[in-house]
Amino acid sequence: MKNHSALTAAFEMEGIDPALAVLVPCEKPDLADFQCNGAFLAARDMKTNPRALAQAVVDRMGDDRFSVAGPGYINVKLTLDDLITALFVDENVSAAPKKIYLDFGGPNVAKSMHVGHMRSLFIGDALQRILRAAGHTVVSDIHLGDWGLQMGLLTAALMKTTPESEITLKMLEEAYPAASLRAKEDPEFKKAAQQATRTIQNPMWATEERSFWEAMVRVSVDDIKRQLKRLGIEFTLFHGESTVARLVPGIVKQFVDTLMAVESDGAIVVPSLNEDEPPMILRNSEGGYLYAASDLVTIFERAKDEADEIIYVVDQRQALHFKQLFAFAENIFSAKLVHAGFGTVNGPDGKPLKTRDGGVPKLDDLVHQTYLAAHAKNPESITRSEQVGLACLKFGDLMNPRESSYNFDPDKFTAHEGKTGAYLLYQCVRIKSILRDQPEDDLSFAEVANVGEEERTLVFKMAYGFTQAMERAVTRLSPKEIADYTYDLAQTFSKYYAHNQIAGNRARLALAKGVHDRLVYCLDLLGIQVPDKM
Ligand code: ARG
Fold first, then answer.
1. pTM of the model
2. How close is the Cα of 340 to the center of ligand 1, in Å?
3. Spatial distance between the Cα atoms of 534 and 527, rounded to a whole number of angstroms
């Protein structure tokens, strides 16, 4: 509830700007459901007593659901009938549907996905589900990292000795550190790798290098798709940095011609406006195009496809890259550009998570560790541990503020009590079993209309809580809002159930079913599927 026509009218009659007649959820939910601070705010300008002004508004309304509180707030306590009516109203969350490009995942070719890709995938997938549920058109794009010097290094190291059909991801992963070291010590090899990078970046000619590169991409993409399937994440587009390769040289040249970019020691850069920041490099002095060039040209493609907004779900540590990219692109395109950055996944020492030997943990291993923790707590459900473990890992991530870092703690994530994925799955399964024990085949949600005061809190959270959470999730690009709501609703139900008998009461059963369905829906928005049993 945001506006109330009688409140707006009363504001006008008291000479208060009606735009201030806004209702927000009450900070003290035991006292009231909604509150309006508009009269309090207006009183200062009107040089009058805020409490008296609020009282005048309330008197005009003559509606005993409205009252004055504190220094001049207007509180609203709805009746149970109001709440029940609201249960059946579908408040539309999305104001104007937009076409949104959502760039997330961003795994790199020739490397296994690692901890850094996990948050991008989980947050990005939750956002695509939430934004779609809010009525927007979302085009999700994985934006594979598939065309840097790394590709040239691997090609130079392996092409002559390895048949394409024998390439494996493990081989690529092992070859890369060696090739990168060799390039530092062996100038001939470095040159060969730079040459290979240029050849790969030029899609005009069918070369041996391009064919080898394509084979490396195939092997990597197969592995990425296998993992995405396991994680339950889908993309509209499976494009890469290289998708725009054909367009990059021409567009970069245009920037130089129009003086938006300059040549500097053989490189092409966009000078920084801010002295403390490095320039944005589009092409290095060896003729290889860089990350910023492909990102920039990708914006051209997305803008051509009439994107209203492009959202990048990428590590907060890339903030400078996006700041510079956006500052440049905003001169050219009207699409709104947003970096939805996120914090790091830390180890117990509070520093970015590492493997025992100091390496970067693989995504597969993190999923496996959570699976083992889930399994240890419930050994009978071997088949479900995978699903439960994944749910716990996703929830353990998404319940945190997006910008914050958190500790990877599989044991905590899979705990059956507390704010965890496991707790929520248990609540869903439990409500389902209550309903199964009380089969009311012809039960419809409409029967909720007969609930009583005991159900008030639950009905309120069903009627308004979700809309409020969705609104915040969409504006802040924050799946946490949905995670919080889901946990709050599950807990509220659990407390209610401890004191009230549901069996044999059709209204209560209908409400329980509504709560169950809402929990399942919210978890789905987070990319979490509920098993039949636990
Ligand atoms: N591949 C990059 C990385 O692993 C992330 C790509 C993010 N998306 C983008 N359009 N820059 O760091």
1. 0.94
2. 13
3. 18
Could you please report the per-residue DSSP string of 99-138? Answer: EEEEEE---BTTS--BHHHHHHHHHHHHHHHHHHHTT-EE
- Name the DSSP letter for residue 279: P
Nearest CA to ligand 1 atom 12: 106
Q: pLDDT tens, 395-431? A: 999 999 999 999 999 999 999 999 999 999 999 999 9
Ligand 1 center to residue 282 CA distance, Å? 15
CA angle 124, 130, 132 (to 5 degrees): 100
Q: 308: number of CA atoms within 13 Å, CB side?
A: 8
Compute CA 245 distance to the chain's CA centroid, rounded to the nearest angstrom. 28
For 341-362, how does the pLDDT look when each residue is reduced to its tens digit (9 = 90+)? 999 999 999 999 999 888 999 9
- What is the H or E stretch that residue 369 is in? helix 363-377
Alpha-carbon span 422 to 374, nearest angstrom? 8
Place of tokens 């587009």: 237
Q: List CB contacts of 439: < 8 A, sequence separation 6 or more.
A: none
Residue to probe by mutation, ligand 1, list 314, 315, 342, most atoms within 8 Å of CB: 314
On the question of pLDDT at 93 being above 60, the answer is no
Whether residue 106 has its Cβ less than 6 Å from ligand 1: yes
Percent of the chain that is helix, strand, coil (3-state, to 5): 55, 10, 35
Residue 273 — very low, low, confident or very high, per pLDDT cuts 50/70/90?
A: confident
Tokens of 243: 């998708």
What DSSP designation does 409 have? Answer: -
> First-to-last CA distance in the chain?
37
What is the Å distance from ligand 1's center to 147 Cα? 12
Q: Determine contact, residues 194/288, Cβ cutoff 8 Å.
A: yes
120 lines ligand 1 (CB under 6 A): no
- CB distance 146 to ligand 1 below 6 Å: no
**pLDDT reading at 92 higher than 80:** no
Q: Report the nearest-CA residue for atom 8 of ligand 1.
A: 106
Report CA(272)–ligand 1 centroid distance (Å). Answer: 21
Residue 108 Cβ inside 6 Å of ligand 1? The answer reads yes
Helix (H) or strand (E) holding 189: helix 187-200
**Per-residue pLDDT at 73 exceeds 80:** yes
User: Could you give phi then psi for residue 479, rounded to 5 degrees?
Assistant: -60, -20
Q: Letter for the amino acid at 120?
A: S
150: closest CA among 177, 171, 116, 115?
177
Predicted local confidence at residue 469, as pLDDT: 95
